[in-house]
Amino acid sequence: MKKTAFITGASSGIGRATAVALAKADFQLVVTGRRRERLEALAAELAPTPVHILTFDVRDRTAVDAAVAGLPAEFGHVDVLINNAGNAHGLSPIQEGDVADWDAMMDGNVKGLLYVSRAALPRMGEGGFIVNIGSIAGHEAYANGNVYCASKAAVNMLTRTMRIDLLPKGIRVAEVAPGMVETEFSEVRFKGDEEKAANVYKGVQPLRAEDVADLIQFMVTRPPHVQIAEVIIFPAAQAAAATVRRQQ
Ligand SMILES: NC(=O)c1ccc[n+]([C@@H]2O[C@H](COP(=O)([O-])OP(=O)(O)OC[C@H]3O[C@@H](n4cnc5c(N)ncnc54)[C@H](OP(=O)(O)O)[C@@H]3O)[C@@H](O)[C@H]2O)c1
Question: Which residue ranges make up each domain of the chain?
Fold first, then answer.
């Protein structure tokens, strides 16, 4: 029987690429996001891999609980949980920050990860693996990163504490903290301003979502006694959160 990987934020970017990579690694998938049509297109692309789609906002605890409770029996045991859903919203000094953006980041990146983990954990057991997608922003401060950095620092600490709490259950827990990856991330951060989003990657070859997915696939397919706990992954042109080599 295939193992089940449950991936949040699979409608785009890193989550989507991870779904493709884990399907190739012979997992069956539970894929989640708010944009159902994207998830349906992904499921069609991955056929004949069994894919179950759940549509919910990770910030809505009732919706998370209901969706996970409604998993059909054949997807009922979760072997791998990829807590990937999240985004940055805005890039402003703290004194000019938009409170709605702060709520979106803390509620999505931190509380959403908690809600999904709490709902999924009773379905996980010995040999399970949770990968939380953090960010270099959770390891280093950068100008105007304030609340996004704080939300990802919380992901780093939650990962470390979850690893301790879940040790008796034999569930491994890891953080993958990427630097610059070209996805819809910057479009979301700059609220659809394509020029601002494109400037983030100007003169740089960023990571592709597939590069991060390769790493995740490697981590979750190690033998059961191996736990890669924390990995920072940068493009070659990046040395620190705000230290990037731009050419041209
Ligand atoms: N790209 C980077 O440079 C970078 C660097 C470091 C870390 N990261 C992290 O990597 C993760 C994935 O981001 P990405 O770069 O792949 O960006 P992306 O292309 O914008 O994908 C974000 C995914 O998260 C889902 N999502 C966001 N908010 C959600 C919510 N409230 N409820 C449910 N799903 C939600 C989106 O699905 P729907 O919109 O369909 O709901 C989408 O599938 C995030 O945690 C991000 O912080 C990204």
Answer: 4-244
Minimum-distance ligand 1 atom for the alpha carbon of 34: 41
Task: Report the b/e string of 219-243 with b at 16+ CB within 10 A.
Answer: bbbeeeeeebebbbbbbebbeebee
Alpha carbon of 94 to ligand 1 centroid (Å): 22
Average pLDDT taken over every residue of the chain: 98
- Does the active-site annotation cover 148? yes
User: Which position among 115, 142, 148, 201 bears the catalytic label?
Assistant: 148
- Residue-by-residue DSSP string for the chain: ---EEEESSTTSHHHHHHHHHHHHTT-EEEEEES-HHHHHHHHHHHTTS-EEEEE--TT-HHHHHHHHHT--GGG-S-SEEEE----------GGG--HHHHHHHIIIIIIIHHHHHHHHGGG--TT-EEEEE--GGGTS--TT-HHHHHHHHHHHHHHHHHHHHTGGGT-EEEEEEES-EESSHHHHHTTT-HHHHHHHTTT--PEEHHHHHHHHHHHHTS-TT----EEEE--TTEEETTEE----
pTM (2 decimals)?
Answer: 0.99
Tens of pLDDT, residues 170-211: 999 999 999 999 999 999 999 999 999 999 999 999 999 999
| CATH class of the structural domain 4-244 | alpha beta
Question: Ligand 1: does its nearest atom lie under 6 Å from the Cβ of 206?
Answer: no
Q: What is the pLDDT of residue 78?
A: 98
Q: What is the pLDDT of residue 248?
A: 77
